[in-house]
Specification:
Rossmann fold, alpha/beta, 21 strands, hydrolase activity, 7-stranded parallel β-sheet, 620 residues, helicase activity
Length: 620
């Protein structure tokens, strides 16, 4: 399904009220493009489109300074298509984008604009996908290529892409490309193209490096700037909450539990944090997935499609992995970590409230990070509202109100004879009144099991620890002699089955990734995963009950750190000789079940060279 192009169908508040806002018919687009725009249901261009399209149609080079979500794709995509000859089967236009996701989005949008132009082909090229399908598409005579700098360079070197005949070049999100280290690639790519080409450069900021590129590769460019008030920031309700690091995960779970958004994106700084936060959310019963730079492209595409079709509630992502992601269902963005730069904040919250839609953004701020908050407010020219994180009681109230809202429809549906008879029997044999019974059933149905559970839930907020300052005093961990005798690796608890998977320490396997993969692919709840033993080249995982053949197949084909899990049931110690892998010298133990209850994971001894896994500690 093509991604919806970034357009608006009404004038922005910042536009002058003295003259009527232009329509796309006023922009002198070719008839085929006007038909395509009309078919998409848009009438009025956004400010960046109204300013950039006329200059580009006149053949001028353009520098567009605008934030993400303001309609940049149509601003350069429509004039690009106007400059392309569909009857000529060669590459005539090139668009460079910093990430695979953005390249795919731009290619889809330009392809939707080109739907009324017979014979015009748009081909995306990006890393993480095989070369040969892209080479075949290029050999068929594509006129427009949209790609990431690295893959475009690869195709140039392989001879599958020639740029000596291009008429039009676009650098989209140029500041991000340079920040990611693509400066040399961009320079070399442009050196393979004619000096007479028309060039459009779009960037959220104009640092010296971008100004240098413009000076060297652009001819007397027209500068178009969209004020910050006209960007997506104005359509997003922005709030913050002061949350100590050790309480972030619990706070996040409660925010998501009380949100009415269809889907949410949670931004973290690092790939390891994405895995840990994603696994925590899954263990708490949320339908979540993680996406970062090391996730294979096919898996990334599958995750994004799940987000679009409604089968995924929460996406935990790093900044680079989420570039170019535009999904209508995203109504909430949570900055689990405050972004390092204010501009990154704008890009993050631009994943919601895009082009006419509204959204919410919440940023977790540690007590010492208030200065970063002030920098964000200065950049966005908006003051963020401070809120309090929902309590466990707030979560129960939200869930119960939602449940009560469904009562009339369920009552009207009927077939309550069995429930009524059992309720009558219970009331006759109990001193409880009907009102109390209804309250108890409601509390049980939303997972509220009493005051002690609320206290445990509050404690669980401290379960994700990522630095020495948050690990607590050494005395809190208890003396090793008091922890009891260490059980044999993989010895299952009652009701659990031990499975062996083909990833271990040597492959970079971590408990959060293992929990998230097994629950996500196996269709399990986080509560179904028990103890995990990680050895050098394999791991043992205890799962409640047993996995079906279909579950084993799905989990077995999944990958962690690029390695297939190859899951199989573990048959226990052999009758003679050491257990396979037991002497590999490195083993970590993690008890997912105990960790979810707020208890400390089991820390194995250091005999046999074992290294205990403390949740949140880094293994190097």
């Amino acid at each position: 399904m093509p991604v919806e192009p970034e357009m608006t169908d009404s004038p922005r508040p910042s536009e002058s009220s003295e003259a009527p806002a232009p329509t796309f018919d006023d922009l002198q687009l070719p008839p085929a493009l006007r038909r395509a725009v009309a078919a998409l249901g848009f009438e009025r261009p956004s400010p960046i489109q109204a300013q950039a399209i006329p200059s580009l149609l006149d053949g001028r080079d353009v520098i567009g300074v605008a934030q993400t979500g303001t309609g940049k794709t149509a601003a350069f995509g429509l004039p690009l298509l106007a400059a392309v000859d569909a009857s000529e089967r060669s590459v005539q236009a090139l668009v460079l984008a910093p990430t695979r996701e953005l390249a795919m989005q731009v290619a889809d949008a330009i392809g939707s604009f080109a739907s009324a132009s017979e014979g015009l082909e748009v081909v995306p090229v990006y890393g993480g996908s095989p070369y040969h399908p892209q080479e075949r598409a290029l050999s068929r005579g594509a006129q427009v290529v949209v790609g990431t700098p690295g893959r475009v360079m690869d195709h140039i070197r392989r001879g599958s892409l020639r740029l000596d005949g291009i008429r039009y070049a676009v650098l989209d999100e140029a500041d991000e490309m340079l920040r990611m280290g693509f400066a040399e690639d961009v320079e070399e790519i442009l050196s393979h193209s004619p000096a007479t080409k028309q060039t459009a450069l779009f960037s959220a900021t104009m640092p010296p490096a971008i100004q240098k590129v413009a000076a060297e590769h652009m001819n007397d460019p027209v500068r178009v700037t969209v004020a910050r008030q006209s960007s997506t920031v104005s359509s997003v309700t922005q709030r913050y909450a002061v949350v100590p690091f050790r309480h972030k995960t619990g706070a996040l779970a409660r925010v998501l539990a009380t949100s009415d958004a269809q889907a949410a994106i949670v931004f973290v700084r690092t790939r390891s944090a994405a895995e840990e936060v994603g696994a925590e959310l899954i263990s708490r019963g949320l339908v979540a997935a993680t996406i970062s730079g090391d996730v294979p492209q096919k898996e990334r595409e599958r995750i994004v499609e799940r987000l679009r079709d409604g089968s995924l509630q929460v996406l935990v992502a790093t900044d680079v992995a989420a570039r170019g992601l535009d999904v209508d269902r995203i109504g909430l963005v949570v900055n689990f970590d405050v972004p390092g730069e204010p501009e990154a904040y704008v890009h993050r919250i631009g994943r919601t409230g895009r082009a006419g839609r509204s959204g919410e953004a919440l940023t977790f701020v540690a007590p010492h990070e208030r200065r970063k908050l002030r920098a964000i407010e200065k950049t966005t020219r908006q003051e963020l509202e401070e809120i309090q994180i929902p309590s466990p009681r707030d979560v129960s109230r939200h869930r119960l109100r939602k449940l009560l809202g469904e009562v009339p429809a369920r009552a009207e549906a009927g077939r309550l004879d069995l429930a009524l008879s059992l309720v009558d029997e219970f009331l006759e044999s109990s001193e409880m009144d009907a009102r109390t019974l209804a309250a108890v059933l409601g509390a049980m149905s939303v997972g509220d099991s009493g005051p002690q559970a609320a206290e445990e839930e509050e404690f669980r907020g401290a379960s994700l620890k990522g630095s020495d300052r948050d690990r607590g005093d050494r005395h809190d961990r208890g003396d090793r002699r008091d922890r009891g005798e260490r059980p044999s690796p993989g010895h299952p608890e009652k009701g659990y089955t031990t499975y062996r998977i083909g990833v271990g320490h040597s492959h970079g396997a971590k408990p959060p990734a293992i929990v998230g993969t097994i629950t996500g692919e196996g269709g399990l709840n986080g509560k179904d995963v028990g103890k995990i033993d990680i050895f050098g080249s394999f791991s043992l995982v205890q799962v409640r009950g047993s996995l079906s053949g279909d579950q084993l197949d799905r989990v077995g084909r999944a990958k962690i750190a690029g390695r297939t899990l190859r899951i199989s049931e573990d048959r226990g110690p052999r009758t003679s000789g050491p257990r396979s892998g037991a002497g590999e010298g490195q083993r970590s133990r993690y008890d997912a079940k105990r960790d979810r209850r707020g208890g400390k994971p089991f820390h194995g001894g250091r005999d046999e060279g074992a290294r205990p896994y403390h949740r949140g500690h880094r293994h190097d």
